[in-house]
Amino acid sequence: MLEITDVSWAVPAARILDHITCTVPAGSLVGLLGPNGSGKTTLIRAVAGLVRPDTGAMTIAGDHIAGLRRLALARRIALLAQHADTDLDLTVRDVVLLGRIPHRRSRWSDTADDHTAVAEALTRVDLAGFADRTWLTLSGGERQRAQLARAFAQEPELLLLDEPTNHLDIGHQLQLLSLVRRAKVTTLAALHDLNLAAMFCDTVVVLHHGRVVATGPPTEVLTSGLLAGVYGVDAEVRVHDGRTVICYRPPS
Amino acid sequence: MRPARVRTAGTAAITLTLVAGLLVSVGAAVTVGPADLSIGTVWAVIGEHLGLAQADVSVLRDHIVWDLRLPRVLAAAAVGAGLAAAGAVMQTVTRNPLADPYLLGVSSGAALGAVLVIVAGIGGGMVAVSGGAFAGALATFAVVVLIAGRRGALSPARVVLTGVAIAQLCAACTSFVIIWVGDPNATQSITFWLSGSLAGATWAKLAWAIPALAAVLLLVLTQARTLNAFAFGEEAAATLGVDVTRTRWLLLIATALLTAVLVAISGAIGFVGLILPHAARFLAGPDHRRLLPVVVPAGAIFLIWVDTAARTVFEPRELPVGVLTALLGVPAFLMLLRRREVRG
Lengths: 252, 344
Prior knowledge:
The complex is a heterodimer of chains A (252) and B (344). Chain A is of the alpha/beta class. Chain A has helices at 40-47, 70-76, 92-98, 112-124, 140-153, 170-183, 194-200, 218-221, 224-230, and strands at residues 2-11, 14-24, 29-33, 55-60, 63-64, 77-80, 158-162, 186-190, 203-208, 211-216, 234-240, 243-249.
């Protein structure tokens, strides 16, 4: 369980995070929504320990994130970024083994545990049999799934996703998020696509100008009033087959 | 597609073969030269000096093997191994496939230091010049780090750009000094030195280089897994528990110090630190735990034979070894680029 209490972060020109308070309950998938520049990515980066907020507290299972060493943090929190790129000719196994680095017992060799964790992680993302494929031969969707397997191999208590579906086609977007859902790891996911958020998230937190403007189940939060106020779009929110569906109208 | 398990087994075999090849190369390269020596004589002399056996070899031959050729061959091995390892680390830490050990301006600073010593006529001969080169290399590196690391983070882009700028400045100062002084002897020795040469190798210099090489190689090997974490960039490395800033400082300083020591021995020998890491990645894959044990002996063997060619092919003239490494390096580089495109 992740608790964010009154977190603020400012750069000289702007206040990026403004007194943010929210919670990710254990086992749930929480969507972090908001337009570009609303502070989603910064908040994710703060939880990952990549930026240090000026004020406020973030705790994971009661432990202060700011007080944990990098290595200890990497054993508990894994991050799946928007886009991972390398020009090295790594195999999928090499990539997923990176997730074992925080758990290393030896500076040199991989243990049997490491290989078991890699095999399990690949199975969890439906990439069993891909271990020997090289990164350069993978499609965008396969790359993101390999990175998700790397994150699973870290055996995290908390999974952070930073707009992980941005470069994927709709089929791979649905597949990736359903794999995350199926994993039942506590997850905080910055998402752009509101329909995906409505489909997969237990609760959503909506940011606007660095502030939390709404929190709750997607069906309650995602209203046409909120969409007009936060995103400036004209949209109709319907319920179709028991799901919340957002239909946008072109700007007039 | 090479399965990873085959790759692992293959790399162990490659490493063993290369280490054996290195030992054979040292012995064999010493036999090559104007005075004909058999490999038996070479090993006999080495054995005698190490106190392992009594050899019945003439004083002249003993002198040629022990005082002239062996230090030079070992210096080639040390410089080749060190530059190749430093290049591999630099390429990873800066995430720049074109990075090489001279990226931090070390070689240009060394040249300037050497020129100043030659022109000022301090002390006698090569020892003072090497000292000047080492001091110049350290001074340049210090300036680059002070400028690029001002905010503590030592970001790769700043390091690369600052290194390039300072290197250009040093090169300009070197040219200025050479032209201003106009001493043809100084000009000639500088030219030779700028292109790199192992002709000045002595046991005294090796006594500096080999411990420095050993220490840095040990450090780098302990960081092999950490280096792997940089594959997807520094933020990814940070979320894998790597202290990116500390690692970068540690490795950049260690490799720059090693490079300064090596440059003081041999001048700036180009392309070894750029090409060998790419060639080794091609053989062993990008995992540093397999890459480093391959790139080190490969660099040593490569430079031993290129230097042997440099001192013998155009006898009695000697080519600067840096000229030959460039002649061999450029086509090799283009070939690697092509293969990469085909596979990618």
